[in-house]
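INFO  loader      accepted 1 record
INFO  loader      residues=469
INFO  predictor   begin
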Amino acid sequence: MAQDINNITHFLKVILMANIALVAAVVAILISAGSIGYTTVAVSSDVASIRNRADLIATDINSLKSTQSQVSSDVNQLKSGQQSVSAEQTAIKNLVDQRIGGLEKALADAKKAQEALQKQLEEREELLKEVSVFDPDLVAAASREGGLTIYSVRDQADVLLFIQEFQKQFPNIKANFLSATNPELISRISAEIKGGQMTWDIYDSAVSNCRQAIELGATQPYKSPQATEKFFPPIFDPNGHMSFFGATIPVVMYNTNLVKGDKLALLKSLRTWEDLTKPEVIQAFKGNILMDHPSRGGPHTQVLAEMQTLWNDDARWQNYMKKLLEYEPRLFKSTSQIFRLLTAEEGQVAIIGLAHDVLRERKIGVPVDYISLAPVTLNPSCLVVAKLAPHPSAAKLFVEFMMSPNGQATFSKTLRSPMRLGFAAESSIDVLFPGVPPAEMVGIRNEEAHFIDLRGWLDKWIVPIFGPA
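INFO  predictor   done
INFO  writer      dumping tokens
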């Protein structure tokens, strides 16, 4: 467009110059002919006309130049617009590519997660298959026996719950139970073993109580095929008599009405049992501690026994126990009594209580909560089979049931902790202590205290510091 305008301008200039040359020639001819007077007027008129035409041409040229300038401006704007459109197209393409790439990655991640979940589900299903189908020979033998008698230190309601669920699965086995205190049951077991005849098949109690029955010679070894690290934490009876299926868990409890603000923050900052001996903690709660008597052989005793084994440093361990006395604690022989006193605001903190008591009472608004300290200490619930069991196959089948997923679900209804790994319930160890690997859960590692001579161990290590219970 610009080139065409330049060509037109050049053409008009050539015509103008030609006209001027033509007029000059005519003037010369007229002068030479002697007609100068007449022609002067004509020439003047032609010159004026030519000038007018030149002015018009100049105006046209200026108009064309203006048009050329406008066209150039429009062309530049179009070029700029084209560049802007190209930039926008590039930006849109990049954004689309990013979105597509993000979607592709999200889809790939979702597919991986789905595959992992499917694999986990398949593994869980395989695990369930291994224990959901009980040994048919054992089931057949137990059904032929047709009966089962359980001695238990649990509340009657809890034992009845276990029996009802067991009989739903094995209706051919008629089960009954005797619920009593451990001294009463041990006395009965002792009399029966001396008489050479037993009326019970299963004894359901804590480790220390089961150990007493073992020491009387009243039990037979039985190891469940489920008692492996595939299914349970590495807490097993080295002698093969006790089967562990659940646990009570010692914790530090506190009254939520009394422990608030800075005191609560201080308490929740504790991570290990040894943190209880920090000077600022002792100073904050001195004179306000309710303590399970370490010399009585209860849950606090077990925590101390596990710490002795774990630390393997008697000086450090004994110093820890002496530091606990700086709280000037009130000592009690029952965790149930401690719980009642704590909720009645007779103390601010309890060393120790049991997690299931807190879970149960917290549900109904009792002002109590707990902190868990490392290492996580499990006080296992155990089953032993009677040496002269009237129904030995039924007794072993009951062990398998309590360790199975169905038995673990039944046990969880008591708010005590099922020990089976991967089993999700409000009180299961996987839920109470998320992220804690099984290897960091301790229980019954102190063989002297748990399997050899608890009374002798207490007299040697605990009583000299805390006095007799």
